[in-house]
């Protein structure tokens, strides 16, 4: 058995979603997100965020969400600030720039942008007399968990939020893996905290139980006018919006979203134990569902016959950093197979 | 019972798709359209098109597909030609122009662009010494069925194709409702015909049995290099590409796509009979699944309490054109309810 | 001698501009339009417009001006409305669409958009329940004189302005040839009238005395924030802004701009007399500096050996419409040479 | 007397250009760069570059040139690579991203990108399995002189060129100040060398003797098809192209461009001596026309009453880096006035 640990989207949807798709399949519902399940999902998300006035919209995927949200919030002369490791900067094929806006990357540490780095940059920018020829910071982008699986502490996010508010720049949080962040044992942030500290963020469905779908939540900034129109202009408005609405309605019933996230991080903790038991050195051990392992290249050939992983980067001439990810769908037998595989290789 | 005839996307997915989603849900599959179901679907579509060399890619919705395909095929100085009623020109919120390209609209008749109109335009364009300051025609867009539910005959599409090939301009066919066109009793075009006459086209899934998804088929032009990369740049690459691949794999098993289309047009023929029996005047009677009815405004209030319809346009001070659509999902009881509603209103 | 009547930009700059370029050449001046001549030019234009609060910016050419102004005023979901013959729609190579916005073209008559046509369109648009999938009208574009050399009357422009204000849509006037319009014997509009009726317009320098340069005047709408920044982003901010400022400062000293315009239309009147005397049929006789003549094709070969003209369009199998243009720089000897050429051809 | 040393575009045009504008002003010439002076200028530039087959086009300014050239050469999935200090990355208001393409910035040293840094990046990129989600390097941008006034040696540029050719990526050189680079006493590169080592580059006119204008030279890559059309689409095609053609025709007659450049660097050497004599510490002493001085903040107030300079960046709490620039137009009396000003301040 080949164990698939290469990512957290190698699965279908959770059983509850499939069940509800079956139950509601024959209903006649209006299109473009105006159906009752979308409405119900929005109400449940508002409640989970502790924010009655939040505006919520559903999009299909993460890159699409980032591009639509960022370009709808930026004004002509503005760009978006992020850590150099930000997903929008590295792995979205230039989707943000395609909307005509620059990404202003700042140095980060383990995927995180610090309030100090941001503050220093903003201070320097506003002191610079040639700033009229520079791209203005119009939005700050962070991810939670980050692309490295790390987490901002409540204090760190609050500090970032303070800097943003001082400069009146909205703070946008990419929550593609939000469930795995919030349910981490090390997390000291709740969903209502995020709703308060950020101005807009999204709750990732694709990687946490859904076939597809991300829920964008506007709390500190107003929904950009004609937002669904702009989604359409971007090719991001599904005719059968019910597909997204129903999935999120399900995920936010009975805390399912959180339970799925919890399962993912629980399985990650078990995976970490197995990896440690077999002496595999961590390049980066994280409190969420992604773990980064330093592998000798000669081990990778036998390992890849047993386990699918993601290449992360070359560490040196003879070593490679790989990523192993669990998810809401990871099963006991998969971890057992990993243990066996490692035993065989003698990892 | 309120009868929903306002569109052909007020339903879920066909039973076969739901069944296969359930069956395959726990499989571990690679992302971004590299899964085995996507591969299988492509092979089946190639076979149905009678074109072994076709390249096929899956996107989530129609506007997205139009924007990605058109902008990936146009060169910097080019625009896309279509009838003034073309969906891309009227109802896609400016999605094509958002990619930086102009739509060159020509007069059409009942939604169709004639070879003569196109040829005259192209001849004038190439005779015009100021054409270097004009947008060059780089692609011709038609829809089948058109936005008015009408169909190109084989002769008409062949004539358009001839003009395009004379001028070396690719012909792109928007098949958002392709199933209802191909299965119309008046259609004299097959899928292999379309694959031969057009250079690129898409097979609409959203409106013919799927939750979402359109299959783009490149036959006469090469797949633009790095096409999936460009999809990503456009925010149009789903992480769980299996969702699209599996749906099309199902739709192209046992001619399901065609059977669904056939059901839709069969129900439309029955609906036309009911409408005629009740003396409702057709604004435009079509051979496909959309019918356009001229209603006196005083009838619309009682009618709307029984039937949901789409507003199409004002006809005069006292009359409105409405659209009624059937689909693969339209049921007998719905048509019966329509008959009853019309009896009550005395339409 | 070959007589050049093909356009109104086949000349250099007026003597006064050259003289002042020489006089000021060695001055050290700050860049990017912050020099004293740009300031002085703005003050003089404000005065000529009778509008103390107008904001004014200088750009280098017409297409650039149209693209920068239009895209800086439109919101994400909006497009610009114009007559089907509008320069932005026909002869600007897709420059507006390149900024991501659609041009919504309406039928015009002799280059003009009527208030009635605009009003009907806007009424229909706002009645259409599917307008959220359509491009919203966010700006109305007219040209004065139009691309056909025709003029809006004061009543016509006021009516357009009323419709725009009723719908709260800014009215933008392209004045690439404004001087030839305002100084036409048939004009009943003044520069202050235009400043009042329009919300933003530009005063064309390139075709009326300058080497290059257009002055954009914002009267009814505020200058978009960070406008010069957006000009830079568009590649439209000249380092030596003095080149534009000084030219407009000269053009708006001692009514030079108006005198240049007057000369151009005076020469056009004389040209019209010559053409009429030789029996050349007008396709369109205009009150400005461009005249449209219907020529038999067999006459064009000898004619083209004596006179350079612009091809406009084919009239029928044997006839062609050509354009002859005078300008501020047209000389007596040129019109005499035209008279001789026509005598020889027997036009 | 206030001495203006803040930049190299605070002047008009050189006398020879003004003289020729006067001489040719009354000639009737065709528009859009098709005039005889533009042709003549192209021939002279080809000759100066030692490249008979070069294609040459004229644009009005540097940012415009960078945006048009870069976006016309990049394919959909590609971005442009440059040093983090590259003008396009820092001071062009996001003009490149506005065309939909990402700038991939790499660490540079004193404004220069090394062949090793580029090579390492390209090797890593092509080894990265997730590169399909990353922006592909499609062009390499360098500036000569750099934004810091430094110069690539012949060996350094040749090494960069080798890496680019190994990876089949065109090398683009921004020569906004090319004259001051080529005529530096430390330069070991000639114009023909640059034509051979680069694939496309531009010869800056705005900062070296002209009112405006940059000449793009395509040597190693073909002129993108319909390039002037794309210029028009970008709003970058001047109606009176003669203004650019004539200026470059003049600059490339009797080696004027090189003599102007030589004057600028000669005056810079004299300025450096004066600065040194007065003990002003160099932050960066360069072999071209821009010098970077470290000033104590308390000195800046009196200094700024005598000399206009450019703020470059804060060095520490009490010191500021400023830039002083000479140009082709710097006069003896200006340097004398600088000497006097420094004497007064006791710099």
How is this structure best described in words?
4 copies of one chain form a homotetramer. The first copy, chain A, is α/β, with parallel strands linked by helices. Helices cover 42% and strands 19% of the residues of chain A. The first copy, chain A, is built from 14 helices and 13 strands. The first copy, chain A, has helices at residues 15-24, 36-49, 62-73, 87-90, 95-98, 115-127, 154-166, 178-182, 191-197, 227-233, 242-251, 256-277, 297-306, 332-345, and strands spanning 3-4, 55-59, 78-83, 103-106, 136-143, 171-175, 200-204, 214-218, 282-284, 290-296, 307-308, 310-316, 319-325. The first copy, chain A, has a 7-stranded mixed β-sheet with strand order 2-8-7-6-5-3-4, sandwiched between helices. In chain A, strand 5, helix 7 (154-166) and strand 6 form a beta-alpha-beta unit. In chain A, helix 2 (36-49) runs parallel beside helix 11 and helix 12 runs parallel beside helix 14 (332-345). The longest helix of chain A is centred in the last third of the chain and has 22 residues, at 256-277. The radius of gyration of chain A is 21 Å and the shape is globular. The relative contact order of chain A is 0.17. The model of chain A has no long low-confidence stretch (mean pLDDT 96). At the C-D interface, helix 1, helix 3 and helix 10 of C face helix 1, helix 3 and helix 9 of D.
